[in-house]
Amino acid sequence: MRSPEPPERGRGATIYDVAASAGVSVSTVSRVMRGTAPVAALTREKVGEAMRSLRFVPNRLGVSLAEGRHAANGIVFPDLTGPYFADVLLGYEEAAGELGRSVIVLSTHGRDAAPASVLGLASRVDGLVVLGRTVADEFVEQVVAGGTPVVTLARPTVALASGASTDTVCADNRTSAEELARHVLTHGARDVVLLGDPDDSPDVAERWAAFHAVLAPAARVRTVRSHGFDEAAGARAARSLLAEHRPDAVLAQNDEVALGVLTAAAERGLNVPGDLIVTGWDDVMAARWAGLTTVRQPMRDLGERAARLLDARITGTTAPPQHEVLPTRVVHRRTCGPHQEDR
Amino acid sequence: MRSPEPPERGRGATIYDVAASAGVSVSTVSRVMRGTAPVAALTREKVGEAMRSLRFVPNRLGVSLAEGRHAANGIVFPDLTGPYFADVLLGYEEAAGELGRSVIVLSTHGRDAAPASVLGLASRVDGLVVLGRTVADEFVEQVVAGGTPVVTLARPTVALASGASTDTVCADNRTSAEELARHVLTHGARDVVLLGDPDDSPDVAERWAAFHAVLAPAARVRTVRSHGFDEAAGARAARSLLAEHRPDAVLAQNDEVALGVLTAAAERGLNVPGDLIVTGWDDVMAARWAGLTTVRQPMRDLGERAARLLDARITGTTAPPQHEVLPTRVVHRRTCGPHQEDR
DNA sequence: TTGTAGGCGTTATCAC
DNA sequence: GTGATAACGCCTACAA
Fold it and tell me: CA of A264: how far to CAs of A27, A154, A241, A251, in Å?
């Protein structure tokens, strides 16, 4: 004796198999699954039984094609390295899951996304979040024109042909950058270097503008380019920088670069903060252990808010474009001068 | 004058629109796209023109339904927090992309995955990677029985009804755990606590078994449970542990927990490593800045290998189940005793 | 309450 | 070389 339809290996049962096995039509099976119309108790019973014994799981492709929606969202990262992106993804995935949507991730690995990969992604989701400098405005516009809403994250809003613009969510770079700059001046810095990779992200450009505005009247300010934005890149850039001239302070574009600066400074026997003030951005875990002054941004919340804005847009809200700015906060530790430390 | 078919907002053009616009049949359009059969140069030209002007992007659902494949893989994480998972994902996404597959991520947020979410995911991918303790063996088997290959990562292989078992890739826990244990004995530890959350992952169980085997003959060994496996959990557990009794050494399940122990030890004025030896696992960035002795595992490679094993299985290899064990290495720093430090 | 049939967007197999 | 047309798996009017 075997069960009615031995679950065939390698190919899931279809709704037709269930219908046949239960002796009803496919519409009835569909109704039972979706509760979209009343079904006689007995019939429901038989269908349920058939579904169980066949281990039936509806094929997403069929469902999506019929429903006209993917129930999936995409997110495009420039890179997946480091704690920043992981936390954004965490917040995004959690909120998207709650809203009944799967998450498809695409990393462009530092390069600009290949148009094909972005359009391909767009064709398999209901909406897309685009981080920083991953996709040219032109393609963002094209994706939206194709009917797939886009939310930009940590990136300026993109103007659309329709006259509207993308929803966007980002962290408040300016306020904390200004505060950090003032603080550094307080500690006596008069020769400041802004260190980072300006091609990395629009966030960095915003911070640098704010740094400049505050520092320039009171100090010498130079921008120095690091090629890359990880610890090694920071160390390399700092080594050549310190070899030629020693500034009072280095404001790095993120914590990783700042940690690289600390390494280079230690190699030269420089005392931080006595000889050199160093600050980062992001407040990654290592920053606390290195005593690095930095700025904390709400990475999870960025991801979560993006997911919710996107959901609203997919759901068809006609609200005007939203631009959310999430608060950040300066975290004082010992690399910017002697004082009470935050944790 | 307007272009032939004004790209309608909100709804992408279909292959029928292109065919109509070019004055050919859909089969011809399909052939042009896929190069699956010869097409007259002139025709190809017209079709290309139509596709461009309509900004046609084939709908993935249609393609997938017809092709009978999703061109997407899933990956199920217990959690997305911390550097470990981000790096695994990085390696996975990179390899999957290279193999022409999108990546759908699902996090179970520490809990066991809801069967519905896993089966739902399985129904929209061609294959699945399952990390650690996220999905009960029973469901893994069910997913595979349904025709979706599964690769287990950092988790023992799952026996299948077919008599086979899942492909699996994991890091070598035993060798490094043994080495670390011997090393700790060398530094004089005779009262050792293994600290962690045994429910967290099979990896931890493996390490603890190896620790035990080496330590038990020469030292007192206790296992202490931390509820959770982040820094705060480690600190909490260490506080209550140290309040009652001070061991010579705490071997934590991962770096985060170990860093929590360092914090708790500092609060009590204990000298590390003089009064207390501490070790972690994973070699996250913060470990270097905290001087933590730990074990480095090739996270990216884990993800990449999983992607490739999965691809082979999807592609239909009939090779016997693969079980890959990737090498790890102990990183000596100052929390385990005085000596030359690794970076 | 249940069944029939057409549609969702693409591919692929036939004829022509 | 090209064009009908039948899948693919599901949903949902519309009929009965």
Answer: 69, 29, 10, 14
